[in-house]
Amino acid sequence: MTVRRGGTGVKNALIILPDGQGNSRIARYFLKSVYEKKESKLSFLMNTQLYHSFTGPFPADVQTYSGEDIGRHQLPKKDLIEKVTSRKFHAVVDMHPNFNLATAYLTYLSHAPVRVGFRSRFSEHFFNIQIDRKSTDFLEKGYLSIQKLLNL
Predict the structure, then answer these.
(1) Could you confirm whether domain 12-150 is CATH 2.130.10.10?
(2) Is pLDDT of 57 > 80?
(3) Above 90 in pLDDT, residue 103?
(4) Rounded to whole angstroms, what are the CA distances from 61 to 9, 43, 79, 97, 114?
(5) Which of 88, 91, 94, 120 is most buried (most C-beta within 10 Å)?
(6) Which long-range contacts (CB under 8 A, 24 or more apart) does 97-106 make?
(7) Percent composition of the chain: helix, strand, coil (DSSP 3-state, to 5)
């Protein structure tokens, strides 16, 4: 798979939305903006608490996880791994602005040709495309970079 300017974009992607109340407003905005684009088949994975904070229309393909799906050492348990690896995605995007071992590991295990996440000291082990976000940048800017990269 080649990522280039003027490309058609990703047709089948898993978007892992970030945990936490502070990220829910931004995640909701991102979800709404990409959900309105019908050209791509997008699947979403999010924490159950974030899922319950949403109101209004929701994409059909949403899977959730909770703290019980994360085991020792912050690694995902087998059932959560199977939610991701049971399907083939062209791209998997981990939207956590700060490194999250469980979701980074899920992204890696997906074996998707395009694995996107934010740059951190560990990110090179999990993502083949890393979004560099300075601490002074707004998170929305990083999300816009991801949308442009994948043509969502």
Answers:
(1) no
(2) no
(3) yes
(4) 19, 5, 17, 23, 20
(5) 94
(6) 97/18, 97/23, 97/133, 97/139, 97/142, 99/123, 100/18, 100/19, 101/73, 101/74, 101/75, 102/70, 102/74, 102/75, 102/76, 103/16, 103/45, 105/75, 105/76, 106/16, 106/45, 106/76, 106/80, 106/81
(7) 40, 20, 40
Handedness of CA 103, 22, 25, 48 (dihedral sign): positive
pTM for the full model? 0.83
Q: What residue segments make up the domains of the chain, in order of their start? A: 12-150
Helix axes 101-109, 78-85, angle to 10 degrees: 50
* DSSP code, position 8: -
Query: In which order are the strands placed within the sheet that holds 91-94?
Result: 62-65, 41-47, 12-16, 91-94, 114-118, 129-131
CA 62 to chain centroid, in Å, comes to 12
